[in-house]
Amino acid sequence: MTVKKFLLTFSPEIAGEPITYRMVRDFDLMINILRAEIDEHGGRLMLAFEGSGSQIQKAVRYLEDSGVNVKELKEFIRKDEARCTNCGMCISICPTAAYQMDRKTWKVMFLNEKCIACGMCIDSCPPGAIRLRTQD
Amino acid sequence: MRRTYEEINEKIKKGDAVVMTAEEVIDVVERDGIEKATKEVDVVTTGTFGAMCSSGAFINFGHSEPPIRMGKVLLNEVPAYAGLAAVDAYIGATEPRQDGNAEYGGAHVIEDLISNRPVRLQATSSGTDCYPRKEIDTYISLKTVNQAYMFNPRNAYQNYGVATNSSERTLFTYMGKLLPHYGNATFSSAGQLSPLLKDPKMRTIGIGTRIFLGGAQGYVAWEGTQFKTNAAVKDGVPLSASRTLAVIGDLKQMSSEFIRALSFKNYGVSLAVGLGIPLPILDEDVMKAASVKDDQIFAPVLDYAVQSRTRKPIREVSYADLRTGQIEINGKNVKTSSLSSYAKARQVAEALKKQIASGEFLLTQAVVRLPEERVQVPLDIHSQEEVR
Ligand code: SF4
Ligand code: SF4
Residue B150 pairs with which residues in a beta bridge? Predict the structure, then answer.
């Protein structure tokens, strides 16, 4: 089982398609919707797919064939190690415990795989060490 | 067992002094007891690295040709206070950039200077017979200015409250982002490493004490603003915010490792200052206080949704509890965050230890002790008659 995060962008015409339903039914994937924005210009969906690697690949191909722009999100945020003071402010903000204190070194580790891209930590870091990765 | 400053400094000069951090000495005292540990250890170093809003720096820019008496001064567009002699100014850490950009302020100017980055200086004046020039726009760095010294009116708080939020909305405070419904709790003291918690009555810390300030050797200049001695104590340690220090040190000797600009959303800018104080182990009492542990130091939990200076503490927690990452508030498990860096506090104590062990840093006896009794007064609205 692997978990991969994707940003899907699509035009308004496709917005009515039951994409997530088909992901579950046809590709046997577990879907976690991290963010959804849909308006007259179309939609942006941030999803986490959990399933076998090959099924995820097939699902991505299906989405692309349906006219959805699919981009894998390897990293939503990045912690600038030179800027981080290891205070730990981010730790109590993150809902998924993506930041963890090493109680030997008292350094704060960021576990990217736990991040669900909620964005809550970004404005919590006093020295400004947490940066949003631009999704271009 | 007694030791004098002279004896300690003799040992430091010879390279024979036994120096330990306030964290290391805890184990020694647990293993060998106070009496033996006092005999073994000459100096204990402390450290903290946290947001200290009451910080800033005096700068003398040097005279231009023709000279100017600077009236308004901007450093990277952050206003500096220039109501002093012609080319002296004070850049305060929390001053925001004049265009309202809340993410850059005086603290960033200070960090830029320490990091040897050029800083734009713009100054204007109405011009006088002796200072005819009316404006100047140039770049400065720590290499170009005469004096640049940090003078922080309030640093190194002896203990501080823990912040939480009972309200429905997220609060953005100087204690960081506080999530609704007791979503988290933040604290700022370095606890068992924090300088003033390790000499709670300030027997060895007073005016003139040489300290580690931002990587430089600095000094205690005065009692800090809001210094107070009447907080309740447990085992000799104050249970809430108590004494503070005004400190001074040369910006030119500082390092960006130990000075960091901070920006708190919807609050503003502050400066993280790395500050450490060496404690001479003069006798067993000094050692006893210096080896107090996180589970013997307590802080009040305060609800920042209550917007009053007289918040009643919800409960008391130990720093050992805070450091587990979770405390209980009204039956709920609440995640904790430190705002000051324990890793950096350690780094400060270690750096100071190294400087003393290598003979670079000698201890000083305070010239004057700080007040033994001081009450902090509030600001109330008074008529002229009432304050006479
Ligand atoms: S809040 Fe920022 S500086 Fe503090 S530990 Fe997290 S990433 Fe590092
Ligand atoms: S974006 Fe959200 S989930 Fe990811 S690290 Fe920040 S707070 Fe945690």
Answer: B57, B249
Which residues 6+ apart lie within 8 Å of B217 measured at CB? Answer: B210, B211, B249, B250, B253, B355, B361
Q: Is the CB of A11 under 6 A from ligand 1?
A: no
Residues of chain A with CATH 3.30.70.20: 77-132
Q: Which residue has the higher pLDDT, A3 or B21?
A: B21
Assembly ipTM: 0.93
Which chain A residue's Cα is nearest to B261?
Answer: A127
DSSP at B85: S
pTM value is 0.91
CA angle A23, A26, A29 (to 5 degrees): 45
CATH number for the domain formed by residue range(s) A77-132: 3.30.70.20
| CB contact A96 to B (< 8 Å) | no
Residues of B in contact with A124 (CB under 8 A): 176-177, 265
Asked if A124 reaches chain B (Cβ–Cβ under 8 Å), the answer is yes
pLDDT in tens, B132-157: 999 999 999 999 999 999 999 999 99
Question: B326-380: per-residue pLDDT in tens?
Answer: 999 999 999 999 999 999 999 999 999 999 999 999 999 999 999 999 999 999 9
Contacts of A80 in chain B (CB under 8 A): none
Fold (topology level) of A2-73: Alpha-Beta Plaits (3.30.70)
